[in-house]
Specification:
- The structure is a single chain.
- This protein is of the alpha+beta class.
- 24% of the residues lie in helices and 34% in strands.
- It has helices at 39-56, 77-88; strands spanning 6-11, 16-22, 25-31, 64-71, 94-99, 113-120.
- A six-stranded mixed sheet has the order 1-2-3-6-4-5.
- The two termini are 12 Å apart.
Amino acid sequence: MNESIERFDICEEWAHSGIIRAGGFCFLNYCVGNVGGSVEEQINGAFDEMEKRLAMCGLTFENVVKMDCLFRDIWNIPIMEKVIKERFKGKYPARKSIQTEFAHNGGEKGLQFQVDAIAYCGK
């Protein structure tokens, strides 16, 4: 097997890659946006970031097969579901939702939502 691993959107400060292509899949992490805004603004900002990273590999939301959705308040799931319906247009990935305390500046008024994902990119 001679497949390569490609890393994109590398952040030296945080020592991570925003998206990695390996073995027919792309792995995305730490998609966040509009930190400090409303929960809906942050969810849209996270999906904006995901869309940007997917485009780096020639992919779209249709390629996303799995998402891990992290919330400061898990009761905001209906807001996320509304945004997913608007943005994924029926091509929904498998997903799970988790409540967590984010280690991020701003405390309760800061980061409210983050999404990690796996996208199928073929061979």
